[in-house]
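Ticket #4471: structure export looks truncated?
Reporter: QA, pipeline team
Priority: medium

Steps to reproduce: submit the single chain below to the structure queue and open the exported record.
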Amino acid sequence: MTWHMWWLFVAAVFVLSGTPGPNMLHILSRSVELGLRRAVAAMMGCLLAIITVLTASALGLTALLLAVPGLFDVLRYAGVAYLVYLGVKAWRADTGPIDISESAASLPLSHAHVFRDGFLIGVSNPKLLLFAAAFFPQFINPAEPQAPQFAILVATFGVIECGWYLVYALGGRSLARALTRPALKRGFNRVTGSLFIGFGLLLLRTRPN
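Actual output as written to the record:
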């Protein structure tokens, strides 16, 4: 892999990661609800999901999944169901004013719970499998050892993704300061819920070919 190909990868991942999607929406909403420090657990969950899928792609597991009839559809429908569930949950969320002090009393969820939710968001999106299977190989030079190339690409992806997580989390904290009225909080919950449901419905159109 040449420096030129690496820079192309950086540019492509920068744009793709920054585009709003389930991960970024989840990070933003967690930052609004729980504060920046607690949102870090959600970031780490999403990041682990991405690293897990990309590593699986490097090992050939993604290609195996796509090659076995029916398995991709099972994962796709599970992802749709989970995103729709998150959307309904957001619609029904508490509309009370947000405490931007990030005090322990206002943050009932454990770090493990927040981390788990972030991981499930990451792995519930079948588009990540397609991305890993179709996008990564274009930047791999088959004439050179592939493991170091995959390691470099995964690390690069992780750094860029974390940078965007921080941007969205900081945006969430800024937004939280404006959501002090129940009506505004209700509007935010419903917009967030609608977007999650929309992402879920879009996955129904996802195909492995």
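Status: closed, not a bug. The export was complete when the record was re-opened. Leaving a note from the reviewer for reference: Confidence is low (pLDDT under 50) at residues 102-106.
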